[in-house]
Structure formats: C-alpha cells, structure tokens
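Here's what a typical entry looks like (RNase H type-1 domain-containing protein):
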Amino acid sequence: MVPGLMRWDFDKLTSFFLPREVEDIRRIPLGLKPTLDKLIWHFSSNKIFSVKCRVVVNFLSDVMVGKSKWKAPEVGLFKLNIDGSWSDSDGRGGVGGLVRDCQGEVIEGFGKMLVDCGSATQVEMFAILHGLIFAKEIGIHDIILEGDSLNSLLAIKSPLEDFSSLGIYVEEVNVAFCFFNWISYAHVRREANAVAHVLACYAKGLENDVF
C-alpha cells in the first residue's frame, strides 16, 4: 500500500507476485485507516458488529421503497445525495455528491476519481464514505443521506459483520456516522439522485478531485 494513499504499491506487488495475482490483489479494496486482518472462521460465536457513539441514527423502515422525486429536507437539516460510477473494463470509478439545504440550495458538491475498483457496489460504498467525510469537513451536523444503490444501504443496515471485500467500508461508514449529531439514510430512485449521478460519471474521467 502506498503511504497516505488508498492505493496498492504496484512496484512492490510486481516484485513478489505473478502478473495475474497482481491484478487480483489490486482489486482488493483498501480502507482509509489501518485495519487488522481477520481470520474468518464460520464457527465463531461473535459475528455482530456494533459501533458505540452518541449519534442518533434513524434507520428508515421504507428503505426498500425508493422515492422517485427529490424532496428538500426539513428546516435545520441538510441532505447529502451521493452516487458512484464504475467501468468493468479498466476498474476505473468515480464518486460524486452534493449537499443541499431546506430551500433546495446547493451548499457544496464534490467529485473524486478512483482506480483499481473491483465492483460497482464497492464504488457505491466508497461514495457513501467519502460523502460523509465531505459533509463533516464542510461543517454539517444534522444530515439525511440518500443514494440509489440499494445493496450498499442494505449492507450498512445489516446487524451482522460483513466478511466480504465490502466489510471494511461497512465498518468505516458506521464509524463515520459518529461524525454527526443526527443522521438518517434512505434509498431513492435514479431520478431523485440525478445530479449526484452526473457528478460521479464526470469524476470517473478526471485526474484530480473537484469540489
């Protein structure tokens, strides 16, 4: 891993592994913080993941029914819409999002290019994580998160620890929830997430991040 970057060190990988193995390793997602490897043993009695923090997280019960039209949040709240775009041919991805207030006015937006991504869901999970970090950095404390990736939102909602390649993102997203005084998340249809989708697609072709 390249220090300070969420990216594999290609030169070191090629020194130790065969070309095919290098490509497989480069598609393994890396988190934003050091994480210990886990021994996966199906007889383990402790498979429940929990995060202890004071934040009030509102798990919307209608996550399965996505809204088709964007709606402004209530007074005092902000809404973060995020999305991800992925190319299977080269593993390149892009994430984008924006924060809007109760009047529907855009506070700020972002776009970020990714490389060596293994799946569309991985990119969507990173979009959620990066969006939460972005919202924290611009000073948002009470927020509604919306995205059109149902698989990602269900993974976050699950009480079971995720041992798949997405598990590190699920863990970090739950930790990122603690950045906020109040947060809820919901699944919406692509029509209600159109601007974030455009930003993600645009970011996939960039060399530098945009804000």
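Residues 120-137 form the longest helix (18 residues).

More examples are in the samples folder.
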